[in-house]
Amino acid sequence: MCIRDSPPAAAEAPAPAPKRSKKLLILLIAGVVVVALLAAAVVGLLLMKKSQSADADAEEAPAVATVDLNKPPTFVPMDPFVVNLAPAEGERYLQVVMALRVADAKTGENLKAFMPEIRHQINLLLSSKLPSELSTMEGREALAEEIVRRTNGVLGTPPAKTGDGKSAAPAGPIQAVLFNSFIIQ
Predict the structure, then answer these.
(1) Taking the mean position of all CA atoms in its chain, how far away is CA 132?
(2) SS3 assignment for 107-160
(3) 101: helix, coil or strand?
(4) CA geometry: angle at 131 spanning 130 and 136, to 5°?
(5) I need a labelling partner for 96 at 20 to 30 A (CA). Which of 10, 35, 143, 156 fits?
(6) Element (H, E) at 50
């Protein structure tokens, strides 16, 4: 009987091994699925964080009109401005040569009718500035934004208000102001 008992015992031993490998395979697949879900969650969180920071940057940055390369913008050069700056820091003057970026040539041609009032508004703004306000890049960028707001206001586009009560650059015909020369003496 011992001889007969031996072969059936050997036949039963391999049977549990496939059950263990099947359980191992299921555990391995479950582990891979869990790792894949965790990786997807991390990627999703990173993308959301990047999107939120991009939205925050977009809110802080001034609105910039997109440029269609098939239809390039038109630049309207302006005559040079020479103004006395506000006298609080001594007698100083500012010489500025600038151009206005507009959406198309027709808008550029239409600006000629408004040019005396546009020049008047820019002269008033420039002469109200202190040299210290204009000596930094941020000050010059703020000046350019204010010129855009005022000139668009002359053209009938009221300044838009942001959620915090500050004026935002309106989506008017004048898209930007570019300084070709900026000299404070």
Answers:
(1) 27
(2) HHHHHHHHHHHHHHHHHHHHHCCCHHHHCCHHHHHHHHHHHHHHHHHHCCCCCE
(3) strand
(4) 115
(5) 156
(6) helix 16-60
pLDDT in tens, 136-172: 999 999 999 999 999 999 988 876 655 555 555 456 8
Q: Are 85 and 129 in contact (CB under 8 A)?
A: yes
- Residue keyed to tokens 């004048």: 174
Rounded mean pLDDT, 25-53: 85
- Reported as type and span, the H/E element at residue 57 is helix 16-60
Residue 177: strand, helix, or coil? strand
Q: Which residue has the tokens 């009718």?
A: 113
pLDDT in tens, 68-96: 678 778 999 999 999 999 888 788 999 99
pLDDT tens digit sequence for 170-180: 568 999 999 99
How far apart (Å, rounded) are the C-alpha atoms in residues 100 and 147?
10
